[in-house]
Design brief:
The complex is a heterodimer of chains A (322) and B (388). Chain A has helices at residues 7-22, 27-34, 38-49, 61-76, 83-87, 157-188, 200-229, 235-259, 270-277, 279-283, 288-302, 312-316; strands at residues 96-98, 105-107, 114-118, 126-134, 143-148, 190-191, 194-195. Chain A is α+β, with helices and mostly antiparallel strands and 322 residues long. Classes of the chains: A alpha+beta (322), B alpha+beta (388). The interface between A and B is large, with 43 and 46 residues. The structure holds flavin-adenine dinucleotide (FAD). Flavin-adenine dinucleotide sits between chains B (125-129, 134-135, 164-166, 363, 366-370, 372-373) and A (189, 191-192, 196, 199, 201-202, 258-259, 261-262).
Chain lengths: 322, 388
């Protein structure tokens, strides 16, 4: 038993954190909202220097962990780039992304000419090209649609699971940062003659948020291990991670915004920008309710790893039903 | 027991809905959008409501109001909020600046301010919060210095900074809290009625997820105010704030918009209801229960007011339930809109109302007193009750 990320992954994440800080940290997302072209001119070159082009999370335990740690670093600054998808490339260099059933919508769609996409239920995967337009909304500034294109590029179910696992790591980074920002804010902000951090009601909110992030981190690590140990049986694990990431995000971002008071909805404060920029990851390819339903089905058909059998494994082992 | 608000209320509700339907297209999302026509539409609607005798329905007849009951007021509150507040920025003047002037104003102040509010012609903003004074409002630092003899001043110079001031960029008047003298905490706090075009006032919009037209910083640099600008007694501002807020105890009827959006989105989903993930159906049902409970807690507050009680605890309980309901429903609606949830504008699901609601809901547990402050009020009363 060893729940730690390998040293190589930690080193890469540290280097990425320094590089993203040099680009302006969360300001990078603010700038990209005004000028989306900096994703290609500023972010992509930095990712190149970090070796993203040579990193394939499907190679081995270490590359998978390194990709995860990199995505976490990206989430911490709301990096305006579809890093998880770009890490899971097909042989022709197309990014891979899970999409909603019946609608090929992804974050940063127009950043790549072609994508390899498919829904998580394994149906109708293929190559798609960007329609060129983004939503330009406050909660999904870079979200865009794809249309089917010619070309051979069936997205393997495993690749979609890896991409979704990496998206969850990105969310983890965003939540961890949000807790740090809230902690910093209440430590500096004085009301009623003392720092807000001295009020126990404030401390409890921070504690609950920190526990939620800690739990998500463990589950995210466990899921990396499952993807390596059970490549064909990890669907329920990835859906479980996604569900937990979405539910943790709701609670943690809420508290982090709340602890900022009115500043929590304000563009000048990083917590507000992170909350907006992480929305596409929380809504695409599906939100919490559909993820929960898919997970329940996956457990029923594939079981769920634990100390005792569940779902399909109950039938397989002939346990009497009740 | 009878939870029906009565035939009069039902009639009023229908009348309001008809008027709103006639004057706003279904894509109207309030006054604070990127389209200036939306603000204009709300201004015109206020004048129309005034003409129909509906704008000041709840005001006492002596001030030209309709003398309506608290339940009439509740219906107005619900229908307006459910339909994205077609009174736009004017509800603040109607709901509490007007009543505060009735309670504390001089005859001249009443004559100057009440008729334009009643006619739907003026937008008021509220300058309470400051950078260092949020939850702790009594820490406010904006100062009012007397001009001439401090015992009988010829007027005042107001200097300081306000923040989070809603609609300051649209308002003609501001009610501001400033400190007179060297007192601390509640001492010396005084309310001033100041025109927003007075020299020395600068408004800077604050960019937020609510959009660029809602929140503002307002800077006061030696802004002149006449002796007649003081509302209530010099140094008596805290009690003006308290009684003024008594008129706003019930708070915004957020539950009404939640229920309307669940209904509107339900209409969109109805043909495909069977394809929804079962967990969403369950979440939807739970949301409807939460909305109902929030409404009933708000009604309990109105009932207490009707009985002449000061319903602090009931009001805080209602606010906690109502604002949490707002955020929970926003999530359920986003889950229902699935991959289209992040779309905005008229072509988005329910004309963009879901996206708009989600963004505004994030501030619900902060605006007009945070949910934590409400919890403190409820908890204190419990503890006091137990030790009594
Ligand atoms: C949409 C919106 C519109 C607004 N419009 C206006 C307006 O028109 N005019 C105006 O004057 N103001 C307005 N406000 C400001 C509002 O009144 C303040 O935001 C609010 O009082 C909280 O103050 P703050 O933002 O400084 O948060 P802070 O007071 O800094 O609080 C930060 C966090 O700490 C918590 N906290 C504070 N003290 C305690 C404690 N003792 N125990 C536990 N937790 C605590 C708070 O609940 C909050 O979660 C508006 C705010 C919003 C969001």
């Amino acid at each position: 038993m060893n729940p730690e990320l390998p040293a190589e992954a930690v080193e890469l994440a540290d280097a990425a954190a320094r590089a993203f800080a040099a680009l302006g940290d969360v300001d990078l997302a603010r700038r990209a909202e005004v000028d989306p072209s900096i994703r290609a001119t500023e972010v992509a070159p930095v990712l190149d220097r970090l070796g993203v082009a040579d990193l394939d999370p499907r190679d081995d335990d270490v590359t998978l962990a390194a990709a995860a740690a990199l995505c976490e670093a990206a989430g911490r600054v709301a990096l305006p780039y579809p890093l998880a998808a770009a890490l899971v490339r097909d042989p022709d260099g197309r990014p891979t992304a899970a999409v909603p059933a019946g609608a090929a919508r992804v974050d940063h769609a127009e950043l790549f000419p072609e994508w390899r996409v498919g829904p998580l239920d394994g149906s109708a995967a293929g190559v798609a090209s960007s329609t060129g337009a983004a939503l330009h909304t406050r909660l999904g500034p870079f979200v865009g649609d794809l249309t089917p294109a010619a070309g051979d590029g069936t997205a393997a179910p495993y690749d979609l699971l890896v991409q979704q696992c990496l998206v969850a790591w990105t969310v983890l980074g965003a939540l961890d940062r949000a807790v740090a920002l809230a902690t910093g804010h209440v430590t500096g902000r004085v009301q009623f003659g003392r720092p807000l951090a001295e009020f126990q009601a404030v401390q409890f909110q921070l504690a609950d948020a920190a526990v939620a992030v800690a739990g998500l981190r463990e589950l995210a690590g466990f899921t990396l291990w499952r993807l390596r140990a059970e490549p064909t049986g990890a669907r329920a694990d990835v859906l479980a991670l996604r569900l937990h990431a979405l539910e943790a995000a709701r609670a943690v971002l809420r508290s982090a915004q709340q602890l900022h008071g009115a500043a929590g909805v304000c563009d000048e404060y990083d917590v507000s920008v992170i909350t907006r920029m992480v929305q596409p990851a929380l809504r695409l390819p599906m939100g919490a309710e559909r993820t929960a339903t898919e997970l329940a089905r996956a457990i029923a058909s594939d079981g769920f790893a634990g100390l005792f059998p569940h779902g399909a494994d109950l039938r397989a082992t002939g346990e009497p039903g009740r | 027991m009878d939870f029906d608000l009565g035939a009069g209320a039902a009639e009023l509700r229908t009348r309001l809905r008809t008027l709103i339907e006639q004057h706003f297209d279904p894509g109207f999302l309030g006054a604070f959008t990127d389209d200036p026509a939306d603000l204009e539409a709300t201004q015109a609607f206020c004048r129309l409501l005034a003409g129909e005798g509906l704008l000041t329905l709840a005001w006492p007849t002596e001030y030209g109001g309709g003398g309506g009951s608290l339940w009439d007021q509740t219906v107005v509150r619900e229908e307006m909020w459910a339909h994205h507040e077609p009174r736009g920025a004017q509800y603040m003047g109607l709901n509490w600046v007007g009543p505060a002037i009735m309670a504390h104003g001089t005859a001249e102040q009443k004559a100057l301010h009440l008729p334009p509010i009643a006619a739907g012609e003026v937008i008021w903003c509220q300058g309470f919060s400051e950078p260092e004074a949020g939850s702790d409002l009594a820490a406010l630092r904006t100062r009012a210095e007397p001009v001439g003899d401090p015992a009988r001043p010829d007027g005042w110079r107001v200097t300081g900074q306000k923040i989070w001031t809603s609609y300051a960029g649209m308002a003609q008047w501001c009610i501001i809290a400033a400190r007179v003298g060297a007192g601390e905490r509640h001492e010396g706090i005084t309310m001033f009625l100041v025109p927003m075009d007075a020299p020395g006032i600068e408004v800077r919009p604050i960019r937020s997820m609510l959009g660029p037209h809602h929140l503002n910083e307002v800077f006061f640099d030696e802004v002149p105010a006449g002796p007649d600008a003081v509302l209530g007694a010099v140094g008596g501002g805290w009690s003006v704030i308290r009684t003024a807020l008594a008129h706003e105890r019930v708070g915004i009827a957020r539950y009404a918009r939640c229920e309307r959006l669940l209904s509107e989105m339900g209409r969109v989903l109805a043909p495909h209801w069977d394809e929804l993930p079962p967990s969403l159906e369950v979440a939807w049902a739970r949301a409807l229960v939460q909305v109902r409970v929030a409404r009933l807690l708000a009604y309990r507050t109105v009932r207490a007011q009707e009985n002449g009680e000061v319903p602090d605890v009931a009001a805080s309980s209602a606010r906690i339930a109502v604002t949490q309901c707002d955020q929970a429903v926003a999530e359920v609606l986003f889950s229902a809109a699935e991959h289209r949830s992040l779309e905005a504008g008229p072509d988005a699901p329910v004309h963009g109302a879901l996206e708009d609601h989600w963004r505004y809901a994030q501030a619900a547990t902060v605006s007009s007193g945070t949910i934590e402050v409400q919890r403190i009020i409820v908890a204190k009363s419990l503890v006091k009750g137990a030790s009594a």
